[in-house]
Give the backbone structure.
Amino acid sequence: MKHTWKVARISGIDIKVDSSWLVIFLLFTFSLSAFYFPQSFPVSNRMYYWLLGLLTSLLVFASVLFHELAHSLTAKKQGEKVEDITLFILGGVARISDEPGTPQKEFVMALVGPVSSFVLALFFILVSVLVAPFSKPIQVAAAYLGYINAIVGGFNLLPGFPMDGGRVLRAIVWKATGDLKRATRVASQVGQGIAFFLIFFGIFRFFRGNLGGLWLVLIGWFLHNASVQGYSQVLLKSSLEGLKATDLMSKDFQFVESDLPLEVLVQDYVLRQRERVFLVKEGEKLAGIVCLEDIKKYPRERWPELRVREVMTPAEKIIYVTPGTTGDQILQRLATANVNQVPVLEDGQVIGIVCRNNLLQVLQLRTELGI
Ligand SMILES: [Zn+2]
């Protein structure tokens, strides 16, 4: 089960919390309240440890948010759109809707993250020094926050894409060679190297009896996926840049009624006519669009009871493109809107539909033909 909750909105950016974040939040609170603080100073009431643990743990994640906000606000300033920031089990991630346009922009945007963490680290260390004569608990908590922020800053500076340091490396190679694809490949390979190192080092530590090793394995595994994915995204983008909506769309589409049972749609339309996308109408109005991917989301047993209306992308959520929109822009729109298809609109008429699958099929055909 995957759930995210929107908890705030800062400068037009939605701040979200993923359910997996609760795990790490509780883990932090628990290890601070049950071990770290009790080992650092005595108190008369143990509740105090838990209160301080909770507060410190919240500040840890406020710091992670601060780091992501630094990226996001810089991106916004550079003219990019920031969708949202999500806190999850391995930290935070900002969804920025486009890759930076120049190496300089990418360099600055990547670097502000670790810099903001180091600034926070200095701030907390300063607080810890200043309060030392007055309050041992606050001194210990502030020192801990300083240490965590320094780790966050340092870890993110590792030069593997898609970590901040990897993006800095990519920007430098990009600037030097003028080739974004090559720069991404280099940074992604370093990223995979670091990921393997983390995984092996984590396993090694685990077998030496250190449970924290598993954590490194998890981070390494995540990093490996992200760096492979990041690179293939750039590859895909550059292959799609040369294609227009008219090259990618399918022109064979039909209208179906919105109250048609899914089972009938599959039997009479999909299987018999071998089509994958249908426009849905209600009376004379376009009500939505339904694609094979929408159907596949539901188990077969439910097809007889479900109506097209319940599985389609409704009209108000449909994003249109024009015949000249390029493949990479289409892909980006599909991703940002989280839909599987876009109709192509010319003079108010739907002239075709591009499905996520079309993009891949066209690419595959072109690769096979060596185009
Ligand atoms: Zn960062």
